[in-house]
Fold:
Amino acid sequence: MKIVSGNSYEELCQRAAVIFSEQIRKKPDSVLGLATGSTPLGLYRELVRLYEAGRLDFSQIRTVNLDEYYPLRPEHPQSYHYYMQENLFGHVNLRAENCYLPDGAAPDPALACVAYDQRIEQLGGIDLQLLGLGENGHIGFNEPGSELCADTHLTELSESTVHANARFFANEAEVPRRAITMGMAGILKARRILLIAYGKKKHAAVAALLDNRITPQVPATLLKLHPDVTVLCDGGAFLG
Structure:
């Protein structure tokens, strides 16, 4: 695991954009694993800027997202479909048919989860997976517990995650209590992983990445099993 520290959120996003840009230029039809929430917003803005400057081409890129609230339809303003369209997809030359997210409106979520994993395999797997880091150490919506699910699955969100995500909704009561998320096995199958963490609230989770433990109580610690993980963090996340 490679730890890279930066002085600000903006610097972390610029470093992340360099990594994504190198991947896109090296392999123009890369499969990019994408994340949502507040952490990736600066990265997406930088990728849009590079595209508008004529320095990136997304026309052959395929994308898969980590998760989606359940049950939310794609057009719901708090769905991750909507988020991706507003913050990245609608601003670059990605082809709509090459962008995949879990189906948050699926009548049979179990079947949709199996289909999602099959789709990722059909694409040839994920070349570069972007991750944020929950305050409780979750990645995707893989929450702390005595055991973790390997494959894409429907999961119950912890109260701490619901509380943290309430800032995106009118109030906490509106936050969905379930989500479809890529499982830990799917995340670890990515050829390369990039995790961004910033702010003092992420310090405990980052500290767990730096010690010698691997525990489902801090799902992110399973990243220690992967051969190519880069963690970008600021002083707050790194030093507390």
Summary: The chain has one domain: 2-239. DSSP finds eight helices and ten strands in the chain. The mean pLDDT is 97.
